[in-house]
Design brief:
Elements lengths: L8 H28 L3 H17 L1 H8 L2 E3 L6 H14 L5 E5 L6 E4 L7 E5 H6 L2 H17 L1 H11 L2 H11 L9 H45 L2 H15 L4 H7 L17 H5 L5 H15 L4
Parallel strand pairs: 2-4
Antiparallel strand pairs: 1-2, 3-4
Length: 300
């Protein structure tokens, strides 16, 4: 799908490299498991089935988890009006729009393809932002759809849990059984746990690095589309500040969606946490938008 969003060749390259490296990591993981345990084919088939289900039903799973519903233009005229204008400017198909009734101010895009894309915003976000700020956030999310990084993150995020799934299934299903002695079984369990831990850590770091870059890419693309980087910067500042006032219990409920949210549900990031976070530090995002505002000659 060609749109007026500028192609981001660095993002495309990073997605290809991440998927390629994850493929190598998991190929090695499966090969190691074949040497260590029985029933690995069954485990991989089950995991593959779950991955396919998540890919195929990604939009429904996300909306159900956030208790969101698809809204019509009559139900959300402001939201539809903004997205109509942005899609016309970007020359791209309009995704379905959904609203989640929660005080958490956020937004995300999901779906297995551009034709199945859904853009979801929360009532908390719409209440807090003016039209220009909301336009900036929605342009950010539409760029995720146009660049297809939503699908890559959906698949990559699922692969990140495969190691733990395989280990648990193998252990509890008796895949370590058979004629082995207790000592041999213990050694196999420890080896599988070690391999799983290494695979999980590598996958985690690769996915988080891609996630941080794709947020910077979406900020850049969305700001260029609207021509108002300052509006997106204002939205970022508001959302990040207000998230800090949401009860921690509510934030933890939504934390599983951090990699897909406009801003992380648990926002404070510092030192080592930056390496493990799903989003770049707020200061870095604001610095990029300030530079872009100067380049575009925006009148603030």
């Amino acid at each position: 799908m060609r749109t007026r969003f500028r192609p981001d060749h660095q993002l495309t390259a990073r997605m290809l490299i991440t998927v390629g490296l994850l493929t190598l990591v998991y190929a090695g993981f499966v090969a190691a498991l074949v040497l260590l345990i029985k029933s690995v084919v069954l485990v991989v088939l089950i995991a593959g089935g779950l991955l396919f289900a998540q890919y195929w039903f990604a939009d429904r799973i996300a909306l159900r988890a956030m208790d969101a519903r698809i809204v019509t233009p009559e139900e959300a005229p402001r939201l539809h009006g903004i997205v109509d204008r942005l899609c016309a400017a970007a020359d791209m198909p309009k995704p379905r729009l959904a609203v989640a009734d929660t005080e958490l101010p956020n937004a995300f895009a999901t779906g297995r393809s551009t034709d199945r894309a859904v853009l979801c915003v929360t009532t908390g976000l719409m209440r807090r932002l003016d039209t220009g700020e909301l336009e900036g956030v929605l342009a950010h999310e539409l760029s995720h759809v146009a660049h297809r990084d939503v699908v890559v993150m959906t698949v990559a995020s699922f692969l990140g849990v495969l190691a733990g799934l395989v280990t648990r299934f193998s252990f509890y299903s008796g895949a370590f059984g058979g004629g082995r002695s207790r000592d041999n079984t213990a050694v196999v369990v420890l080896l599988v746990m070690a391999v799983s831990a290494v695979v999980y850590v590598l996958s985690f770091l690769l996915i988080r690095a891609l996630s941080r870059y794709r947020e910077l890419a979406a900020d850049r693309a969305g700001a260029i589309l609207t021509g108002r980087p300052s509006a997106l910067a204002s939205a970022l500042t508001k959302v990040t500040g207000d998230i800090g006032r949401i009860p921690t219990r509510d934030l933890r409920t939504a934390q599983a969606f951090n990699a897909f949210f406009f801003a992380p549900a648990l926002g404070a990031q510092a030192s080592l946490a930056n390496l493990l976070s799903t989003h770049p530090a707020l200061e870095r995002r604001l610095d990029q938008l300030a530079t872009l505002s100067t380049e575009l000659g925006e009148q603030v």
